[in-house]
Design goal:
By secondary structure, the chain is α+β, with helices and mostly antiparallel strands. It is built from 16 helices and 43 strands.
């Protein structure tokens, strides 16, 4: 909780055009305000439902939001955290955060909004039944019901069919849940715990979007969706393409829209039929609101008379509409749609008079118990109606200050963050997840794309005699090296952050090894007590260490000796530091990409400790990076000396002296030059080297000296039984004897993109299959070539090694040790 103290306010007048003055809430240009007015006068709502980031139809969302002016949103059941990342090393929760922000960036372009459920993307699923079992059907269904009751759509559109088909099980499950939620959202006996804050809501119909196609009489509904945005002049298709291109972590950064006539086809799943349009029979005007028809008529008159070059001229009429709307809100018992429309109108009036409000802080973060000084800048462009600043939250209430056009009002305040304030962390990551679903202790947050602002200030104004409230979120502004400005949201952080040098620590059973913890001070003159918590049966020395810092940013590494039990075992080691009576156990992981706002993760400071019998051969390994994984880190933890090699650097000289070369996931996709280097790699193998190629989606080896063809086949069940096809092969025997126990405890899946055809020189080592399917024999292929070995594997080592799966380490060590 944030509390205000020692607040003061200062008024100052500065001439317009002050050097260096920037405004975040820059007023919209006239044509954009006109579009906002048109949207204000439309009360229809559409909700699109899919399973993952990139499942949404951005053409339909753009047309609905910008062409029809409907309130439009995309509900993605997952955050895409089970996929791969082609732009960086982040996976799992960090990747889910990136894809969340990519969806929000997409919605800022196409005009939609964004919702999520708590479902976790656990990788490819071949069955909706498996998906709904892992997700916890009833819990995720409740989340979809909650979003419907919150957003109150007239029409729901699913991306996929609820009928099982040859597609991702998540896809089908998203439609199954949307259809079930459609039938339950209006039922007051369904999920009654939600009704303390929400009301039942029944949409009129639910449709499946069957993609773009022309009119097809007798085959459902077809709607033409092409058009042009009057603000930018761009086609809806071009905007939709830009929106989809925000999914850069999925390799869609170069996506472009398709021009020409565009149609979208629909099939009715339930509810009232539609013959001409997906909004048939729905009153999307103010006439649907008791007492609201006059507001629609008045708004239409403002739209007809609106002057884009002089938006302020419409303000007197808009204030009259607002006065009626305020009365209507009181009469409608706070109907969420009407309350939202009032906020929309407030923003329109604000833009018309050129009133901008920005709150800035001197730093990017604040720690619990600390004061932060805030600067509020208020600028007004028009004098069509009198505007006064009245007061701000927690500020000393001084006499109102009349604002003059072209002048700047500066207000200052200071707040103290309470000692027990929660640290900034995405709300769905604050608790350890259950199987298939995130735990969220505050139900009101469920469905939201991101956290509400940790710190918010409110400023109150009188505009034309009516009271307005404007909320701002403090940001930190810094100059970049390019002359631009970076704007970072203020975050609540731990005074000392902690991190381990790796995500997994390998131990010899019964032996001790050193474990390093890096502590970083976020503020000057910090001291505390650092501890490691180890699993039962493990031992740590010393029990604690004192930490002291003289300045912010100072970083020290602290060493503990940890002893593993005599038997093979796996557990978690957690670091914590006590500062001023409060215990902190978090890291500090910023995520920065130019296409999304900067993000901060403060995950629990922990590593997976694995006590196992592990032997290896060879010493020096080259690693050719792919789409981002932590296999190189795992090789280092196994005791190898790892050299990272860019594909462009591959040469006989660069590979000389290496005992093995490992190729990262999707490297043929992310490093175009790699395919041309395949002959060099095979020359290295022929001379006695070993190359281990992890899964790829591109057939960069189709014409190699030992060709193979990659398919999209996979084994999605991580516990699928494994059969040894070549039990005497060195890959299963040296230096570690691999048994069935080594395939216990695998996570997410067994294998992906398993080859379908391969040269006779390859020896299939093992096979597995999902229930009811034929075995896939190409999951681990080893070929003798000259004096060395070439390995291709679809086994998901990039997931198993960071998860600390013992058998994966033992098997991977055997592959890297081949020929040694």
């Amino acid at each position: 909780m944030i509390r205000w103290t020692t607040i003061f306010a200062l008024g100052a007048v500065v001439t317009a055009g002050r050097p260096g003055l920037e405004r975040t809430a820059r007023p919209l240009p006239g044509p954009a305000i006109l579009q906002e007015l048109r949207a204000f006068n439309v009360l229809g709502t559409l909700l699109y439902v899919g399973a993952h980031p990139d499942d949404e139809n951005t053409e339909l969302i753009t047309f609905s939001a910008k062409g029809r002016h409907y309130r439009t949103a995309y509900l993605s059941l997952t955050r895409g955290d089970g996929g791969q990342n082609v732009i960086g090393p982040e996976l799992d929760e960090a990747l889910g955060l990136i894809r969340t922000q990519e969806l929000l960036a997409a919605r800022r372009l196409d005009g939609g909004r964004q919702f999520f459920t708590r479902a976790i993307d656990f990788g490819y699923s071949k069955s909706p039944d498996e998906t709904l079992e892992i997700w916890d059907h009833d819990e995720v269904l409740g989340d979809v019901v909650r979003v419907i009751r919150t957003f109150r759509p007239d029409v729901i559109v699913t991306r996929f069919s609820p009928e099982p088909s040859n597609t991702h099980g998540h896809h089908t499950a998203s439609a199954v849940l949307a259809l079930e939620a459609f039938r339950l959202a209006g039922d007051p006996t369904a999920y009654p715990e939600q009704l303390t804050a929400l009301d039942p809501w029944q949409p009129l119909r639910i449709l499946q979007n069957r993609g773009g196609r022309g009119p097809s009489p007798g085959e459902g509904l077809s709607v033409q969706v092409d058009g042009q945005d009057p603000v930018t002049g761009e086609s809806f298709s071009a905007i939709a393409g830009q929106s989809r291109a925000m999914h850069r972590s999925q390799g869609l950064g170069g996506f472009r829209g398709r021009e020409g006539e565009r149609f979208e086809a629909f099939t009715l799943l339930d509810g009232e039929p539609a013959s001409e349009d997906f909004f048939d029979g729905i009153d999307a005007t103010w006439g649907r609101v008791p007492g609201g028809a006059e507001i629609g008529t008045m708004t239409a008159a403002v739209i007809d008379a609106f002057e884009p070059e002089s938006p302020a001229a419409s303000v007197p009429a808009l204030l009259e509409i607002r006065s009626r709307l305020v009365s209507l809100v009181a009469q409608q018992d706070a109907d969420p749609l009407i309350v939202e429309k009032r906020a929309d109108l407030d923003r329109i009036i604000q833009h018309c008079i050129g009133l901008s409000v920005e709150t800035t802080a001197d730093s990017t973060d604040v720690v619990p118990g600390e004061a932060v000084d805030l600067r509020h800048t208020v600028i007004l462009d028009s004098d069509v109606v009198p505007v006064e600043w009245v007061r701000g939250t927690g500020m000393i209430n001084r006499d109102p200050m009349t604002l003059q056009p072209g002048q700047v009002l500066t207000l200052q305040s200071s707040l103290v963050v309470s000692d027990d304030a929660p640290l900034s962390q995405p709300y769905w990551l604050r608790e350890a997840p259950a199987t298939g679903i995130y735990r969220v202790t505050q139900p009101a947050l469920i469905g939201m794309p991101e956290n509400p602002a940790p710190i918010k200030t409110d400023l109150f104004f009188s505009i034309g005699g009516q009271r307005f409230e404007m909320s701002t979120e403090p940001i930190h502004i810094a100059e970049t090296g390019t002359g631009a400005q970076s704007r970072t949201t203020l975050q609540v952080v731990a005074p000392i952050s902690l991190e381990f040098s790796s995500s997994v620590s390998l131990f010899v059973p019964g032996a001790s090894r050193e474990v390093q913890v890096v502590a970083t001070a976020r503020r000057a003159v910090m001291d505390g007590v650092l501890r490691l918590d180890v699993p039962q049966g493990w031992r740590v020395e010393p029990v604690s260490r004192s930490v002291e810092f003289a300045r912010a940013g100072e970083k020290f590494e602290y060493t503990f000796s940890v002893a593993a039990p005599a038997r093979p075992e796996q557990g978690a080691i957690t670091a914590s530091v006590e500062v001023s009576g409060r215990r902190y156990s978090t890291g500090y992981t910023p995520i920065r990409y130019e296409h999304i706002p900067a993000q901060l993760l403060q995950p629990q400071a922990r590593i997976t400790a694995v006590s196992l019998e592990l032997e290896k051969r060879g010493q020096r390994v080259g690693y050719i990076p792919g789409a981002g994984d932590r296999v190189a880190e795992a090789l280092t933890e196994m005791g190898y000396e790892v050299a990272t090699i860019d594909a462009s650097e591959i040469s006989a000289q660069r590979l000389a002296g290496l005992d093995a070369v490992v190729i990262g996931i999707r490297a043929f996709e992310t490093q175009d030059v790699l395919e041309s280097k395949v002959p060099v790699l095979f020359d290295y193998v022929a001379a006695g080297g070993t190359v281990v190629t992890q899964y790829n989606r591109e057939d960069g080896l189709e014409s190699a000296p030992l060709p193979l063809r990659i398919s999209r086949d996979r084994v999605t069940r991580e516990d699928a039984p494994v059969t040894f096809l070549a039990p005497d092969h060195p890959a299963l025997n040296a230096p570690n004897e691999i048994t069935q126990a080594d395939f216990d405890g695998w996570v997410q899946e067994r294998s992906i993109y398993v080859p379908m055809q391969w040269d006779d020189a390859y020896v299939p080592i093992l096979t597995a299959n999902d229930p009811g399917e034929e075995p896939l024999n190409g999951q681990l292929l080893v070929a003798k070539y000259g004096a060395g070995y070439f390995v291709y594997t679809g086994l998901v080592f990039f997931r198993e090694l960071p998860a600390g799966v013992p058998g994966a380490y033992r098997l991977f060590a055997n592959l890297v040790s081949l020929g040694r």
